[in-house]
Fold these 2 entries.
Entry 1:
Amino acid sequence: MIRIAVDTLGSDNGSKDIVSGILDFLKDHDDVEIYAVGKKEELTRLEGKCVIVDAPDIVPMEAGPLEVMRMKNSSMYQTVMLAKEGKVDAVVSSGSTGGFLSSSTLLLKTIPGVNRAAFIAPFPTKIKGHYVVILDIGASNENSPEELKQFALMGALYSEHILGIKDPKVYLLSNGTEPAKGSPVGKQAYKLLMSNPHFKGNIEARNALSGEADVIVTDGFTGNVFLKSSEGMAKMMAGFIKNAFKKNLWTMLGYLHVRKGIKEMSDTMDYKSTGGAMLLGVNGVVVKVHGNADAWSMYCAINVARKLVKSDIRTKIKEGI
Amino acid sequence: MIRIAVDTLGSDNGSKDIVSGILDFLKDHDDVEIYAVGKKEELTRLEGKCVIVDAPDIVPMEAGPLEVMRMKNSSMYQTVMLAKEGKVDAVVSSGSTGGFLSSSTLLLKTIPGVNRAAFIAPFPTKIKGHYVVILDIGASNENSPEELKQFALMGALYSEHILGIKDPKVYLLSNGTEPAKGSPVGKQAYKLLMSNPHFKGNIEARNALSGEADVIVTDGFTGNVFLKSSEGMAKMMAGFIKNAFKKNLWTMLGYLHVRKGIKEMSDTMDYKSTGGAMLLGVNGVVVKVHGNADAWSMYCAINVARKLVKSDIRTKIKEGI
């Protein structure tokens, strides 16, 4: 039995959708036991189906690392503690990203040999059904060349064992494709990466989602800028498209004809169905869901946590490092 | 009379569109003299209207700094030399970005007091007609906190004198809005920037194009990743939209109803009409046009060069530093 703790608080939409996601997930899977952590009175629908842990405090979105560690009665702290105490195999939260990453890192510690944990997420690409994983997208503000080398290893393991990509192609995010391109840290990392058989060289941000790469390695600051500029541009264009259809009755009629295509586009771009982002390199399986998680994204995230536990990625990382 | 040298080679589309752009520009402006540099036989339409400089070699797209400096007969080298020798006030090229930036920096040198030149470009925002300038988007691979401070000053001058924004709001690109966020260099830059009255704090990449910022400062590596990830995502979404309309006769009919709106969106997103990117901080006005420049983008770029000369931004930077 795989045991997964789910933080039911801290989501933008409250706990209702999260509870629905847990119920949907349990309907389809009988190999998982869920520990639901949050306000007891909001979890009545889960009674008899989950282990319920009452921890009513909510970690604020902008919480710093020390703040979370002090909030012992928070759903987030209690969720991570369940993993630390060995009561669960994985933790899932849609609460404060900073709070969740820092409490997970501080409480679970990194796997022996891993210098730093990396925040990793699958991104949709131009090729339908193909995802590229990018790490670190923001666990750190800076990384050493050696850390980037470890990220390449962890990213390839994720790509192989969770996304099922055989012999994943690993690239380094850079400002040009030539080996001499890159930030000072990137250039040094390039040299270290040459010993990795999966490594294919530098890739520019404009080709990151083209589908050629399976794994892209970057420092946490740059990865965060990549993530957020892609997100910003996608939102801006989605807004323009909506406006284009709102002009008059004719354009609204036009919308009826293309809405299926637009729905398909949104689905391809939907970060929710990718199951969130993971903190790799810590002693435990840590999955972060987007702040506006709905039942479906929670379902997917719990499923990713389940897959990560089943694949025993932690042991694979330990052996690989 | 403002004298502008235009490199007519190195564009993806050949010199024909560039020549058309020059002709269109000259029709509307009588205060500019153009030096057209390139293959003489391709410039016959300009005879009697421009000073024609025969320099038939083309700098390859992937040229390194030393390579350009050796290609004395190239249109790019000759164009920049005209500025170095004081024969023109500004230079415009759509050729190799790396080659153009490096030859301009090496030949023209930075303005006394300026540590490093910055590559700056205006980006369209959610607010129609409002542009945010971002620098450095790739002249350097790394920058010191002091350099970022100078970029803030140069960016504000550009925003004020070229885009006509009074009291421009300057932000630092970061991975969070709190002052403690950022890369190690960014955090130090934040402290130096506090003395700049235009400085409003950190901004995340997802809000860079929201319209709240007039100037965004970043190091060249991160700025380049921002530029290219925004570009990549915009292209990917544009591709999805086109596919949505191609499904069947009904969706193609739908397109007829929204094409005006989509045209408006493309216009807002059109980097061509923004007049390209500029190298600020060197002894001269240097304007880079996108590699697939058409007549209209060349027209706009020459006009930006004209405005930069007229506003005497070089003296303003010198005084500001």
Entry 2:
Amino acid sequence: MRAFRLTVVIAMLVAQPVFAQRGAPAPRSPEILPDGRVTFRIAAPNATDVRLTGEFLKAPETLHKDAKGVWSATVGPVSPEIYFYQFAVDGVAMARTKLDVSGPSPRFYDVRPVAHGAVEQRWYDSKTIQGVRRAFVYTPPNYARSSERYPVLYLFHGAGGDESGWSENGRANVILDNLIADGKLKPLVVVMPYGYAYPPTSPLADGPDAMKRQRDGFSRDLIDDLIPFVQANYRVHADREHRAIAGLSLGGGQALGIGLSHTDVFSRVAGFSAALGAVTSPQAGGLDFKSLIADSKKMNDRLKLLWVGCGTEDTLFNSNKEFAQLLESSGIKHTFRVSDGAHTWQVWRRYLNEVAPLLFQ
Amino acid sequence: MRAFRLTVVIAMLVAQPVFAQRGAPAPRSPEILPDGRVTFRIAAPNATDVRLTGEFLKAPETLHKDAKGVWSATVGPVSPEIYFYQFAVDGVAMARTKLDVSGPSPRFYDVRPVAHGAVEQRWYDSKTIQGVRRAFVYTPPNYARSSERYPVLYLFHGAGGDESGWSENGRANVILDNLIADGKLKPLVVVMPYGYAYPPTSPLADGPDAMKRQRDGFSRDLIDDLIPFVQANYRVHADREHRAIAGLSLGGGQALGIGLSHTDVFSRVAGFSAALGAVTSPQAGGLDFKSLIADSKKMNDRLKLLWVGCGTEDTLFNSNKEFAQLLESSGIKHTFRVSDGAHTWQVWRRYLNEVAPLLFQ
């Protein structure tokens, strides 16, 4: 890790005093050991308590201080995956940080030497929101050289996230590139919008009607502004047969809520660890799924895929299970996928890898 | 800020226990007051010392604790700008965070309702690096609908950054969209690569030759791999007359070093707060600018623009001034732009806004 120190030296050379490191260089952390265990370290000579939480831990780990004031703990072995972890120094949570433990062979979300699609950041004018909004758009390999039209998936992030989440944390483009290269997926376009009609700093995100305004605003922005923008700017099929909607967590609730309310617009609907409460709560306008799906014949005729997945360690598991039971008792064809895992990107990456090939067969 | 708390509540609903907040919600921070001052707060009941550093402060500010364990300080007034700031809790630095103080009218890097270009993430195979690398590519408004060819700017980030820096922190695409909309800039394509041949975790980033290997690897990847990829995948002019190179800090050193070494490839060269040491040091192969520019007639014939800018509060100011003096004493036509400011994105956004229209007139 002399290399890292070298980079730090370069960074220090060009950093302003206000951000310059003082004293000793940061200790090496995380250090992945040959046996798969991982050592975490943080310099905090004046702290009295340092803990580590992480998606690879069942409970917070207490770190121990050495004579130089560096706290450390060794955990694991940790399986090959990308995880989030976080130190708490005297009870103050530090930034969530990624730990990437690579394995002996490429994972399904590792960049491989195959043909690559592109991820575009696009800005569109939204009449609904009365402002400019950003969406990320995945176009498959050779899109620019082709004259083909493609089906489209609208794919939503979770609470606290944004339109960059599915590419930065979900590796959506890498997963899709790999599936296409392996002949498991026909090329498609994926549109990843910003899931809040009004960002937290907006006055419109405040007040008793905020949840309903967010829900209705996002839905109208999607249907009245974003879909027309996509159809005007990308070679996509513009009919419901070629349009899917999916999302994770808050976005899963949005996908199920909007998808089942608009079967004239979408024919494929999927919720990953869906937060149904944010959609069904009275504050959000109290979307009533039961009456929404009452006409089971119409729903079954229109929906080519209805997929609901949740990990058994997820605190939302029971509400997803109840939702699947409602679908079952209402005679709605669907897949309820019960998997390992909690409310994490590990699960959502796997779900995308599993669901994408089912969308447009 | 009830809205923000509401968002936090939604986030908590869907968060796993491992990342759930405990106890009281986070205090409102930063709070921009009507008089332009800003209050920063952080809950740290067990800490004994909390400080704030920020690009709007001349020296670290000490926070004070209230009875509930919330530390706070009010600073400013702070001019409309985007700044980074950072808490240090008992000497441990927290994440660098943005403070965006908007003004009464749109700033040159604010998104306006004009025609928008796109920012694409592209992956290319690099023979030099023997792997897949990512670059960000700005295409101007209406690029997809046009059949025109465009000039290209290769634009580099600084030490510790990556290929997302110029769009995420530099707002390059927004600045260029606004300049184009205002008739101040002819449309161009901007390519923003990853500035390290080998990331810090690579064994090739280690050892005594690391700086030279990084420098040579980046230069070869740019010329042998990235430029051919761009020319094969974008409608750009493929001659030196339509090719510019620029960068900030480490990337400024790279732009000046590569640009002046390859006047057969680039006709426009600019360094923003350039870190010349990383290019000229013996470890980096000791690029000797003096002999590089010895043939002043050739350099002046070939270079249509040579622009060097640095803020007077920047620790790199003197080395940039010496470089400008070397250019002057060698008879090389150039612009040395002395500005206010330190080693910050405030300066680099302004430089891009100023330099982009000069590139291809």
